[in-house]
Amino acid sequence: MPFNTELTRRLGIAVPVVQGGMQHVGTAEMASAVSNAGGLGIITALIWPEPEGLRQEIRKCRKLTSKPFGVNITLLPALVPPNYDAYAQVVIDEGIKIVETAGNSPGPVISKLKKAGCIVLHKCTTIRHAQSAVKLGVDFLSIDGFECAGHVGESDITNFILLSRARQTLKVPFIASGGFADGQGLAAALCLGACGINMGTRFLCTVESPIHHNIKEQIVKAQETDTALVLRRWKNTTRLYRNKVTEQALKVEQESKTGEFSEIAPYVSGKRGREVFINGDPEYGVWTAGQVIGLIHDIPTCKDLVARIEKEAEETLREKIGLFTTSAKL
């Protein structure tokens, strides 16, 4: 295989491509398809309301692949927070050695995982947060640019700047997340100092992705302008696919006199978003998508997608080397 990066060496994968954790999507079938293709598949822990559900999904994934895969644990604000410690314990009990973490106050979970010998990839949207994660002992940082789907942070720093800042300041290896869909993007990320890429929306639009085919077709039709940012008023800025419900949520956010979250809550319901992926109606509820939807034009298998990215990246890097010449100046 042409790639030999810190990510491929440490994780035991062939292609430096990670399928990021995605709510409602990161199942055993999805993760195993990516891992079997040579990348790193990831199960999303909080798809299951109870930790035991995660345990069964991990065991299912092991039957579907002999390759490395990981688990995502994302810590987000909630009226009744999940028992993150219990999810982490299941990961440890089941012998999972690669964990993607994200969200608020991850210290206790990361500490628990590191004591158990896990490799931790922590997702950050700012260099400041990345430096804090380094102090917690994470092994890799997933640097998440403003282009990404879902929670974009509040700093609005795009990846071209964010990755270069990571290269300049971080002593821990990092992968690039947000805005990646092809081998040219992988090649660019490697040139900017990353040791791999993380893809969410691109893997959402694959044959094995467990969402309705209509939504995949909607992604293929979409342009890079078809996303919107909501919840900035509550410092929980989230990038969503721009549909009728998203527009209604934005209207409430902009016009609310009270600023009470309860006014917008019905429009940003995760339950309705999940139904979108089941019933195939892209207008039924809000769902996350990155600006990278403008770069997605087909619905391949994970095997074909990862192989294509590998080939494109190798060809791009070899081609760009050809731009350099040692010939004497005239």
Automatic annotation (TrEMBL):
<dbReference type="InterPro" id="IPR004136">
    <property type="entry name" value="NMO"/>
</dbReference>
<dbReference type="Pfam" id="PF03060">
    <property type="entry name" value="NMO"/>
</dbReference>
<keyword id="KW-0285">Flavoprotein</keyword>
<keyword id="KW-0288">FMN</keyword>
<keyword id="KW-0560">Oxidoreductase</keyword>
<dbReference type="GO" id="GO:0018580">
    <property type="term" value="F:nitronate monooxygenase activity"/>
</dbReference>
<protein>
    <submittedName>
        <fullName>Inosine monophosphate dehydrogenase</fullName>
    </submittedName>
</protein>
<dbReference type="InterPro" id="IPR013785">
    <property type="entry name" value="Aldolase_TIM"/>
</dbReference>
